[in-house]
Write a structure and sequence with these properties.
The protein has about 80 residues and is mainly alpha-helical. The protein is about 65% helix and about 0% strand.
């Protein structure tokens, strides 16, 4: 697979690629296999994995905030 230049991709595309890398890694796929399947460089794959580890896999809300939002959605949904 031909390598892609990530500098030419939108932020949304890069975010989706990083999520794909993380999903594959959590399923036990080796880093070099992820490189081969995605067309990303070894550096890009390791950077993506490092970002997810540092950011807590994308969680931005506290447990209390999540609960408040869930309750608001349940209380206001039409039935």
């Amino acid at each position: 697979m031909e390598k892609e230049d990530a500098r030419k991709q939108s932020r949304e595309v890069l975010h989706e690629r990083r999520k794909q890398v993380n999903r594959m890694h959590r399923k036990g796929v080796a880093v070099m296999e992820i490189v081969a399947q995605t067309g990303l460089s070894w550096t890009a794959v390791n950077t993506a994995l490092g970002l997810y580890k540092a950011e807590g896999l994308g969680h931005r809300l506290t447990a209390s905030q999540e609960l408040t939002i869930q309750q608001t959605i349940c209380d206001r949904r039409p039935e």
